[in-house]
Amino acid sequence: MSIENKKYLGWGIVGTPAGRQQVGYGVDKQLNLAKTFDLAQEFGGCLIDPRQNDEPLYRLSYLAQNDISVIGVAEYRSIFEQGQTRAGTYFGAFIETVNFQVDDKTIPTLLSALAHLSFFQFENFIDPDKRAYTQSINGVEIQAPHEKLDEIAQGLTTLTPNYLTQTSQNGDVYIHCQKGEAEETLKLLLKTGVFYRYKQIFFSESQYISSQIQRKRVEQISFQQLQAITNGNQPWLKEISYLRSAIGKLQADKKQIETDKLNLQKNQAQMVAQELQEKEAQLQKVVSQYEQRAIHAEQQLQAMNTFTVLGQQIYGLYDEQKAKLEGIVLPQKKEQDQILEAISSIKNAVASLKMDVNRLNQPQTTENEEKHEDNTVLTWIFGIFSLILLLIFLGNLVWGMFISTDKTISEQDYKRYLELERQHPALIQEKDDLTRKVSELNKDKKRLESIEDKWNQCFKAEKKDKEKVCK
């Protein structure tokens, strides 16, 4: 069986090997509804003795839970429990459809598949001679008629509409059938939707079961009555179907109108929101312009304040200088001429003083040059003696090395060495004398530079200060 068919079809077996047991397959593994197909003792006691052959008892039930609708069809046959001989025990099978129902054309296949499942249980778990269970059926694997189940699954159709305004299921009903009427009974029950009205609908072609049911307080009708009710109600059912179709169309139109209304409201809200956004953007633009103007005005105000402060500072300086100028008494024209004449006399005296200083400074400059020349000559002399001393030192160094390396020196070289040793103290003394003379010349030079500085100061000083500096 295909996986797709298992989504809508379930099957299994039920029985009483040692109490009620059941096992389900297909979609029933997820739904776990196999236990709902247990047969109550009230109806199990109506089954014939297992040692006698008889027609099965059929059951049609409808269950709605968790947004799913399940239609189940089961068959039951009489059998003894394992090691028991009491009445009311049974074995059977069930097939269930989810959110669909079996089509009229596949109802014979459905009843045949139920018989196949029941006889598989009879052949594998029941002693045919004792007509009693030999083992439990809990969790067993069964050989299902997959070809028939596939045919049923492929022929599933939509559920019959519920025409009844009363949706609650009240009690059970039994339908008495004659030979060959069980199949037609199931077709009528599925077609008319009577299963919405009752919790359980039982029917059988067994006269024994029918006679036993008549003693029960169970609602009962015959197949002919069911057929008559169906035919008599057919026009009304068609009218109800039309009205329900019209109601469904109106409900669909209402739903579409509500959807359009919501879309319109959504579009209007979007338009209003867009318009508000545009107005808000314009308002923000105007606000930004005014903010820029305010910033510009504030900048201009700050600039004006700066110029005002600067003007106040300038005006204050003007007032201060004006007060100072007003306190000064300007000299008369005659006094101004006398001041200018005195300034001219001072300038002439300064010029005469500069000439005298230049004349007096000329001999001193010559003397300084001579002193400088003397210093230069002494410097050369000092340099020559230093060079001589350096040569003597190098000669001694070479001589020492020569003596240390070669002991066979000539007598003439040895005398020359003694002569140099004798002259060495005199040269040192002469060097010290020259150093002393250079120091004295430097002192004379500093004294002459001091005299020159005084003459320069006399040259730059005013006539009235000249005598003070030169004294």
Protein described:
The structure is a single chain. The protein is of the alpha+beta class and 471 residues long. It folds into two domains: 3-232, no CATH class; 340-470. The chain is built from twelve helices and twelve strands. Strand 3 (57-65) and strand 4 form a beta hairpin. The protein starts with a helix and ends with a helix.
Q: Within the largest sheet, what's the order of strands?
A: 2-1-5-4-3-11-10-12
Residue ranges: pLDDT <50 for 5 or more in a row?
A: 363-373, 402-408
- Our measurement of the CA-to-CA distance between the termini, rounded to an integer number of angstroms, reads 146 Å
How many distinct helices?
A: 12
| Average pLDDT over all residues | 78
Question: Over the alpha carbons, how many angstroms does the gyration radius reach?
Answer: 72 Å
Largest sheet: 8 strands, mixed
Number of strands: 12
Shape: elongated
Proportion in helices: 55-70%
Structural class: alpha+beta
Helices and strands, in N-to-C order?
HEEHHEEEEHEEHEEHEHEHHHHH
Number of domain modules: 2
Strand percent estimate: 5-15%
Secondary structure blueprint with pairings:
Elements: H1 3-6, E1 9-15, E2 21-26, H2 28-31, H3 41-44, E3 57-65, E4 68-78, E5 90-98, E6 101-102, H4 107-125, E7 126-127, E8 132-133, H5 146-154, E9 156-157, E10 172-176, H6 182-192, E11 200-204, H7 207-213, E12 219-222, H8 223-232, H9 234-326, H10 333-405, H11 411-460, H12 463-470
Parallel strand pairs: 10-11, 10-12
Antiparallel strand pairs: 1-2, 1-5, 3-4, 3-11, 4-5, 6-9, 7-8
Transmembrane segments: 377-399
Keywords: Coiled coil, Membrane, Transmembrane, Transmembrane helix
Coiled coil: 247-300, 417-451
